[in-house]
Amino acid sequence: MNLFDYPANPTLNLLPKDGTVNYFGKIFSPEEADNYLNRLLTNIAWKNDEANIFGKTIIIKRKVAWYGDQEFEYTYSNITKKALPWTKELLELKTTIEAETGETFNSCLLNLYHTGEEGMAWHSDGEKDLKKDGAIGSLSFGAERKFSFKHKQTKEIVSMVLEHGSLLIMKGTTQTHWLHRLPPTNAAHQARVNLTFRTIVF
Ligand SMILES: [Mn+2]
């Protein structure tokens, strides 16, 4: 079997309009991807996600972590987090995807979905401290999961499968015009780790 079973075309825009999404497919061999998955599960300071809803703190099953060049503060769901310093594997991954895409990143939000029961509802990454129209590099390890975009006005939906060891880039006006989500599924029983490399501005 070839390491790269489904060659993807990273120059293809998967969105029909109002933004750019490029899928690079599997950029790591299965062995490298397994190795990163294990290292990330072990070495990342995973914490259950929390949301502040009407003044009440809700504990979420999905785990998260936040790393960066500096102790950036990052706020979402009304909770502010301070970035931890890069680990060895995160720096390796950042260097790899910077070379692959020609973009640069200064921070990374990680999500751990333990099984297919865990997902992420429709949202866009429109936080005010993110660089406007900056690229977001999304690496996936572990269970293959469907990922969808929905146009905010036309409600048009575009979906793809994010493979183990794969890279997806969202850039341009994608966050302004499109929502995205990770739907829950009965098909996935293994964990998925997702890393989204971003650029934070002050
Ligand atoms: Mn997102």
Automatic annotation (TrEMBL):
UniProt keyword Metal-binding, yes or no: yes
GO biological process: DNA alkylation repair
Pfam hit, one: 2OG-FeII_Oxy_2
Keywords annotated in UniProt: Dioxygenase, DNA damage, DNA repair, Iron, Magnesium, Metal-binding, Oxidoreductase
Domain Fe2OG dioxygenase: 104-201
Cofactor(s) needed by this chain: Fe(2+)
Superkingdom, taxonomy of origin: Bacteria
One GO MF term attached to the UniProt entry: metal ion binding
Family matches, as InterPro entries: AlkB-like, AlkB-like_sf, ALKBH3, Oxoglu/Fe-dep_dioxygenase_dom
The protein's name in its UniProt record: Alpha-ketoglutarate-dependent dioxygenase AlkB
Originating species: Adhaeribacter radiodurans
